[in-house]
TrEMBL record:
Region ranges (Disordered): 171-200
PROSITE patterns: CBM2, GLYCOSYL_HYDROL_F5
Enzymatic reactions: Endohydrolysis of (1->4)-beta-D-glucosidic linkages in cellulose, lichenin and cereal beta-D-glucans
Protein name: cellulase
Taxonomic lineage of the native organism: Bacteria, Pseudomonadati, Pseudomonadota, Alphaproteobacteria, Hyphomicrobiales
Organism listed in the record: Acuticoccus sediminis
GO annotations of cellular component type: membrane
Amino acid sequence: MCPPYFTHKYDTPVLLACGGLAGVSTRAKRAFKGPMAKLILILMAALLAVGEAQGAPQVSDLVSSEARLSANVREDWQTGSVVDVTMSVTEPVDGWTVELDAGGSIVNIWNAVVMSQRGTRYVLGPASYNHQIRAGTSIEFGMEIDGGGAFSLVTAEVKLAADVAGQAADAAIAPPPPPPGTAIPTPGGQRAPAAPAAPATTAVPAQAVGLGVSNPTVAEPPGAALQLAAFAPGPFSVRGTRIVDSGGRPVEIHGINWFGFETEIYVPHGLWARNWRDMMDEVRSLGFNTLRIPFSGELVATGGDVSGIDFALNPDLAGLNGIQILDLIVDYADTIGLRVLLDYHRGKPGGGPNDNGLWYGDGRTEADVIAEWQAMAERYRDKPAVIGADLMNEPHMATWGDGSATDWGAAAGRIGNAVLEVAPDWLVIVEGTAVYDGDTYWWGGNLQGVRDHPVRLSAPDKLVYSIHDYPPSVYEQPWFSDGRPLREVWDKNWGYIVRDGIGPVLIGEWGSFLETHADLTWAAELSDYITSLGVPWFWWSLNPNSGDTGGLLADDWTTVRPEVIRVLQPFLATSRPPVPLAASATNAGAVFAVTLDAPAAESVAVRFATVDGTATAGRDYVATAGTLTFDPGETRKSVSVPILPDGGAGGDTHFYLVVGDASGSRASGTAIITGD
């Protein structure tokens, strides 16, 4: 009999026991934009009682010519269930509600909100990011239910919009021409970037107003160019039990996970709330020096049809697919001194590791995984920011060293060598399993098999083992209460690899809400253990929407949680840039005036974001994005963008500020930075 054990998911734990799998995972957040509602459509259907028939209970759909609502009881046990609901539409929708009988109490919900409840009857509405649905697409939401009654859909109400599908095209509209007599350069003869489409979450004013943006000129501040690089140039290798730089000096990786590319939206999460460069600037300014970026095999195979982006805050991402957005993130990481570890998190898009706990399956063979890794190696091998390949996330159902079809230690050698054929400078990161010789540990954290069955690579100086470790709040593992010192548990499962001189170990994930004494004790002891062994690490996660651990950021995607910084401060203090990005501009700034052509009768929210021209964010100026709120009667606001010294490189450069409001008004301005 094997003990149950948990791994984190993005909203709730998933229980793996001897007999099966049950769990809840977050569905991808989707963000669509469009005009106001034009029509209300009511969908009705008779209730269908769900009996106790063998297999998953069936729930009747709600259907009309414009929309279909389908429910799937994904997991069902005597006292509860997990239900996924899909809304597919043939017409653009701008708002929806669903009434259902849960047959119990909804104890967890994702991608929807509870608007009202009476007994087991609930009325659900959209989250802030998925009230609009493009024609011919669908959204998903779901819930965990405590109670054994029958689940049924009762009614659904959708508001038809005029043309939500047109929002993507709107993002490609060129901005208005500059004021007469103003010479505005554009890079390479191209047009200035489009102003963003109107954000879905801002209130539409009673009457549309025109927007204007000034075109400031600012002198480059004196001083040396910003020094943000955390490591010496060149690839990493292994020497003994340490990862070293190109000069043979040990490196201290203080990293953080930014997940989302592996999910159904194919981009890092949070782009519905914040600018992507702004988040990366903050990561570097706080002292993190490496990003671990999970992705799915499907991203590599298809490029990734993205959603969940507020293009008003991220106008330079409009029209790009997921892999192209990853290109931008990798390049910008190099600009601001971050390194990147690529993590094959799962084959199909979703949350957590592969459902079968192996590196193959679910329609993918080992050969497919190798091909996808080699495609990633071909794409990024010449990118100086990328340090290596985390071959597979948490292969928890794999074995190690037994020579079977599920022998992950052997497979890691095959996959790793295939990666090194294409990218010989990369590190190859090999995670552990969950069980070895009957002994259970965290998913991806059990490396006991390395002692007798080490991974064999063609380049041994590129091999790094990796583990994941979590606190009691994620799951009350037996070693948290049986009196064993944590150091003894860590030594047995992975620390011995470093202590015995076998090789380096990297902690790919550790994290916690840090709300309990037990979790704080775990974090303090693991911090000391990391320090004593010189182990590199990645905190899980930057994202706040990890249900088991939370993140560095609070739910607003902006506030940095001080409790996380307190734990990590001893590490970050050694890798933090001397001056944060935003403070490096010595008070020099390009000030854009943003104006309305007439006072509005009510508040108007205007999104804004900078976009590169010949000037580069992180090198010439600080990426800036946000929202301006014009109160009734106001017509003028300003946005100040810090300008960075470049060490006297000389020559004029320029960048853009693009703005847009919910009425569809948009504009852009160009800032010119004059050189010596």
